[in-house]
Amino acid sequence: MHLTVNGQSIYAATGGKPFDAGKPAVIFLHGAGMDHTVWALQTRYFAYHGRSVLAVDLPGHGRSGGTALASIAALADWVADLVAAAGLKDAALVGHSMGALVALEAAARHPAAVRAIALCGVAPKMPVHPDLLAAAAAGEHKAYELICDWGHGPAGHYGGHRAPGLWMLGGGERLLETAHAGALSVDLINCNAYGEAEAGAVKVACPALLVLGSEDRMTPARAGQKLAALIPGAKVALLPGAGHMMMVEQPDQTLDALKGFL
Predict the structure, then answer these.
(1) For residue range 210-219, what is the model confidence (pLDDT) as tens digits?
(2) Secondary structure letter of residue 89 according to DSSP
(3) For 35, left (φ over 0), alpha (ψ -120 to 50), or beta?
(4) What does the DSSP assignment read for 130-191?
(5) Which of 84, 121, 206, 249 could form a disulfide with 155 if both were Cys (CB 3.0 to 4.6 A apart)?
(6) Helix intervals (H) in the chain
């Protein structure tokens, strides 16, 4: 479906069910350079189990209009505007990587609009290597290769995924190749520049879950656990063997963690 948020057309997948603002809503927020498709399994489950789902393409991503917003704070404010535009009082937010930072910041800045947060692949700081920043700024394919290499754990590199023959690294590269020009660069700059996670964490007043991969090289689990310790009452689900792209590497385990919380 399409929504108008701040004058821009925004695309959101609804998990195969018509969106109903009268049901408890779950909004899914993707990571840098990606889009709603990373949440295919999780969105469908919740849509068919009593929730309304919006897996959005952030501004300047996927099928959405506009340009990529230039800070995590701006994205967090945009999420609050999205909640209102969808006719919702509040929503649970599920974010991955950059999307997790956005969900965290939204909960800190707009507590009335956020019912709960689930943060996948997150850490208090997400520094980005200068070589990756430079490659993304130049639009080089090397940026996609670096992200997919570091973003996937053993299942992505050596096999063992439940779908035989699925090439996770290649699929990730194809997804990043479809990104709007410049979007990945803006997103990575946002992640690199964001330093308010710890300050925001202590302000979170809603239930929180952190889903962490034991083999995550981008946002190591030990860093995620330090962030969890700052959020009052936060729970942690550690996925053994999962890397940063847990929704692809371990989709069922990721779903189990989310549905046990939401």
Answers:
(1) 999 999 999 9
(2) S
(3) beta
(4) HHHHHHHHTT-HHHHHHHHHHH--HHHHH---SSTT--HHHHHHHHHHTSPTTHHHHHHHHH
(5) 249
(6) 40-47, 72-85, 98-109, 130-137, 141-151, 154-158, 168-177, 183-193, 197-201, 221-230, 246-249, 251-261
Collapsing DSSP to helix, strand or coil, 25 comes out as strand
Quote the pTM value: 0.95
Question: What is the residue type of 37?
Answer: T
Rounded Cα distance, 77 and 109, in Å? 8
Pull the structure tokens for residue 65. 């209009």
Token look-up 């195969």 returns 16
Q: Are 118 and 209 in contact (CB under 8 A)?
A: yes
* Phi, psi for residue 111 in degrees, rounded to 5: -60, -30
CB burial of residue 22 (10 Å; 0-12, 13-18, 19+): exposed
Residue 94 CB partners (closer than 8 Å, separation 6+): 26, 27, 28, 29, 39, 42, 103, 117, 118, 120, 258, 262
Structure tokens belonging to residue 10: 């925004």
Give the burial class of 161: count Cβ atoms within 10 A of its Cβ; 0-12 exposed, 13-18 middle, 19 or more buried: middle
Sketch out the chain's domains with CATH numbers. Answer: 2-261 (3.40.50.1820)
Token pair listed for 141? 């394919």
31-61 per-position pLDDT tens digit:
999 999 999 989 999 999 999 999 999 999 9
Q: Residue 252 has what DSSP assignment?
A: H
3-state secondary structure of 29: strand
